[in-house]
Automatic annotation (TrEMBL):
<feature type="domain" description="Fe2OG dioxygenase">
    <location>
        <begin position="209"/>
        <end position="310"/>
    </location>
</feature>
<dbReference type="InterPro" id="IPR005123">
    <property type="entry name" value="Oxoglu/Fe-dep_dioxygenase_dom"/>
</dbReference>
<dbReference type="GO" id="GO:0031418">
    <property type="term" value="F:L-ascorbic acid binding"/>
</dbReference>
<dbReference type="GO" id="GO:0046872">
    <property type="term" value="F:metal ion binding"/>
</dbReference>
<dbReference type="InterPro" id="IPR027443">
    <property type="entry name" value="IPNS-like_sf"/>
</dbReference>
<keyword id="KW-0408">Iron</keyword>
<keyword id="KW-0560">Oxidoreductase</keyword>
<comment type="similarity">
    <text>Belongs to the iron/ascorbate-dependent oxidoreductase family.</text>
</comment>
<protein>
    <recommendedName>
        <fullName>Fe2OG dioxygenase domain-containing protein</fullName>
    </recommendedName>
</protein>
<dbReference type="InterPro" id="IPR026992">
    <property type="entry name" value="DIOX_N"/>
</dbReference>
<dbReference type="InterPro" id="IPR050295">
    <property type="entry name" value="Plant_2OG-oxidoreductases"/>
</dbReference>
<dbReference type="Pfam" id="PF03171">
    <property type="entry name" value="2OG-FeII_Oxy"/>
</dbReference>
<dbReference type="InterPro" id="IPR044861">
    <property type="entry name" value="IPNS-like_FE2OG_OXY"/>
</dbReference>
<dbReference type="GO" id="GO:0002238">
    <property type="term" value="P:response to molecule of fungal origin"/>
</dbReference>
<dbReference type="GO" id="GO:0016706">
    <property type="term" value="F:2-oxoglutarate-dependent dioxygenase activity"/>
</dbReference>
<dbReference type="GO" id="GO:0009805">
    <property type="term" value="P:coumarin biosynthetic process"/>
</dbReference>
<keyword id="KW-0847">Vitamin C</keyword>
Length: 361
């Protein structure tokens, strides 16, 4: 699979547009009316949701009932919501805050400094402003920085920001902690499905092949938030996502039935969600739920999405134990690289891809 080496249209930095004091957003950001989101800062109230919050310390309880109950709550959240939040997760709150502040400072640097890390659709690594390469596509109101953390062959610190000076160290430390937490979560998710506790870890390629990347999303203020999205509706293509949301500004919305619910961020918690590959492995017991981000005219917003994924060459398919006569395999095997190439070309398309891959009955 080969990708374009450069963008097919000139790249517009959303942050620069936002700073230019325009009153109207360019047409390429205006979504079709059927997709128009609510504006959270408006008086029109959108429904907000408190996602199930799990105290991970409960898994260390000496009381077996407490441990089992915790695993059950996570299992049910993955089935019904595809999302949950974790507290007492072992990652230092100071590290979380420092890492967020660091990235905020990066986005405040001059355009010239950020441009040194401008990305291309060949790997998406670096400073970017669009996902997908189709000419004339509708764009999202978001700039981002994307980098690889695992596997080690793909980790290239020279592609990480040099300023702020603590940036590279913080990314390394944050990455290390989030890999630890992700691995722990895949264990719990495997146990919930009745599989060996390292089933998901091994399917992702174990310690050597599992991949992990970080996307830092920066959503500038938007003069017409009701016409666009910060991120279009999508499900995450990979394994699991650990999101450190902006603690002050809501923006993430998840689909629940026909409604979009705004997630209330909880200080110092991570929002965890199931990606498409875990939906496939679990034969759709766990749901990779569609979500999107809305923007506002008052405040910029920053979030860190850590994606914990199968190695690119791993063939992902429903676990044999979860395939029965009554529950046939819903998906054919596919490598994660093949799967991801679709999004990297077409951009975010809701749940279209994983739905279209369901095996014919
Ligand atoms: C993502 C994502 C949500 C957010 O990066 O895939 O869904 O709140 N981000 O930024
Ligand atoms: Ni997402």
């Amino acid at each position: 699979m080969s990708f374009l080496q450069s963008w097919s249209e000139p790249i517009v930095r959303v942050q620069s547009l936002s700073k230019s004091d325009i009153q109207k957003i360019p047409n390429c950001f205006v979504k079709p009316p059927s997709n128009i989101p609510f504006n959270i800062m408006d008086t029109k109230i959108t429904t907000s949701v408190n996602l199930p919050l799990i105290d991970l310390e409960n898994l260390n309880s000496s009381n077996e009932f407490v441990r089992k109950e915790t695993i059950d709550v996570i299992f049910n959240a993955c089935r019904e919501w595809g999302f949950f939040q974790v507290a007492n997760h072992g990652v230092s709150h100071e590290l979380m805050e420092k890492t967020r502040t660091n990235w905020y400072e990066f986005f405040q640097l001059s355009l010239e400094e950020k441009q040194k890390f401008a990305n291309s659709p060949a790997t998406y690594e670096g400073y970017g402003s669009r996902i997908g390469t189709e000419i004339g596509a509708k764009l999202d109101w978001c700039d981002y920085f994307f980098l690889h953390y695992l596997p080690e062959e793909l980790r290239d610190e020279n592609k990480w920001p040099r300023i702020p000076i603590s940036c590279r160290n913080l990314i390394s430390e944050y990455g290390q902690e989030l890999v630890k937490l992700s691995k722990r979560l895949t264990t719990i998710l495997s146990i919930g499905l009745g599989l060996n506790e390292d089933y998901i870890h091994q399917s992702f390629g174990g310690n050597n092949e599992t991949s992990a990347c970080l996307r830092v999303n920066f959503y500038p203020k938007c003069p017409q938030p009701e016409l666009t999205h910060g991120l279009s509706p999508h499900s995450d293509p990979g394994g699991i996502t650990l999101l450190l949301p902006d603690p002050d500004i809501p923006g993430l919305q998840i689909r629940h039935g026909n409604n979009w619910l705004t997630v209330n961020p909880i200080p110092n918690a991570f929002i965890v969600n199931i990606g498409d590959q875990v939906q496939v492995l679990s034969n759709a017991i766990y749901k990779s739920v569609e979500h999107r981000v809305i923007v506002n005219s008052k405040k910029e917003r920053l979030s860190l999405a850590f994606f914990y994924n199968p190695g690119g060459d791993k063939l992902i398919k429903p676990a044999n134990q979860l395939v029965t006569k009554d529950c046939p395999a819903l998906y054919s095997p596919m490598t994660f690289n093949e799967y991801r190439s679709f999004i990297r070309t077409k951009g975010l398309t809701g749940k279209y891809q994983i739905e279209s891959l369901k095996s014919p009955k």
